[in-house]
Amino acid sequence: MSLEFISVENIEAIAGKYGYWAVFWGILLENLGVPLPGETITIAGGFLAGSGKLNYWFVLGSAIAGAFLGGNCGYFIGKYGGWPLLLGIGRIFRISEEKLLEIKDEFRENAGKTVFIGRFIALLRIFASPLAGIVEMPFLKFTAYNLAGAALWGSVMVSLAFFAGHIVPLEKLVAWVAQFAVVALLLVMAWIFVPLWYESRQASKQLNQQD
Fold first, then answer.
1. Domain housing 114
2. Alpha-carbon distance values, 111 to 26, 105, 144, 169, 180 (Å)
3. Structure pTM?
4. Residue 3 belongs to a domain
């Protein structure tokens, strides 16, 4: 997630000034829904490590720790307050509680995969952990998937920036990662909503035939 008024140059400067704390807090707060460019700060940290200004292992550790703790906080937010909020959102968009319960059951079956893969997908990175809390995914199971996802995501992002930063400008690298995240999000949305749309259409046809 990024903010248009925060340039990549400014983000690089923030990462350079505050170092590992910028990486840690940036991704932790982004995981909690705060509109901060946490992933971009992580990439900037890896980029600076590649140029020798930061230590690769400390950047990696900060990214993994921030992502992991942010995910855990999101889990408890979802577990203790997420369902009433989801019901309220459902009423706004005229989604019945019965339908939300169906979606909840479907998500529960794939919660682990969503938490793990969601690390690499825009917006899903923010919502996957609270949703896991809402469906009451066992905490130890969530922790395992959350840690594995955070470790893989951190390793990929920091290593990509560390090595690719020698041949690709930071701005282009950030743009590529953002484009991948958006495409992945669109594919996930299609995977979720197309079957729901098809199911709704089939139900409407059956009702029309009965009439």
1. 8-210
2. 25, 10, 12, 36, 22
3. 0.76
4. no
Q: Supply 36's token pair.
A: 């901060």
Region of poorest pLDDT, from 4-13, 41-50, 104-113, 122-131: 4-13
* Within a domain: 95: yes
1 assigned to some structural domain: no
Count CA atoms within 13 Å of residue 97 on its CB side: 5
CB 49 within 8 A of CB 154: no
Condensed to tens digits (0 to 9), the pLDDT of residues 106-131 reads 778 888 888 998 888 877 888 888 88
What pLDDT is stored for residue 64 in this prediction? 97
Nearest alpha carbon to residue 150 among 170, 176, 128, 131: 128
**How many residues are present in the chain?**
211
Which is nearest to 76 in space by CA: 24, 151, 146, 154?
146
Annotate 69-81 with b (16+ C-beta within 10 A) or e (fewer).
bbbbbbbebbbee
- Structure-block tokens of residue 142: 């969530």
In the chain, how many domains are there? 1
Q: Three-state DSSP class for 118?
A: helix
